[in-house]
Amino acid sequence: MKKIMFSVFFVYSLLNNAQTPCNNGMAGSYPCNGYDLQSFIPFSTFNTSGGNDSWGWTDPDDGNEYAIMGLKNGTAFIDISDPINPVYLGKLPTYTSNSTWRDIKVYQNHAFVVSEAGGHGMQVFDLTRLRNVAN
Predict the structure, then answer these.
(1) Residue 56 belongs to what domain range?
(2) Cα separation, 109 vs 134, whole angstroms
(3) Confidence (pTM)
């Protein structure tokens, strides 16, 4: 779980595949609290200008770990099983309009995505579909 939370925290970053050690409470320009920064993924990878929420899921069948990230224009899925080399798998587009706020929670093998955007409602994504995705 520590690996998931650490990798998810830093998925908001600027560059891919750059490890940065934690020194004096900072890993580069990011607060680190004793954890080294493993990798960065820029928002441009997701074709968005920002994001606001992240969550994680560990596949109970194979142990692979995934970050699920709320974006202005949808929800991104990233394989973080190798935190030094995260793999962007794809995006579930927003149901309605772009939004600054998107919230994600996971229960068992499903992600539940909500937004304050008018008419958005709740999107439910079967996370087991990520097992056969490669990018």
Answers:
(1) 2-132
(2) 19
(3) 0.82
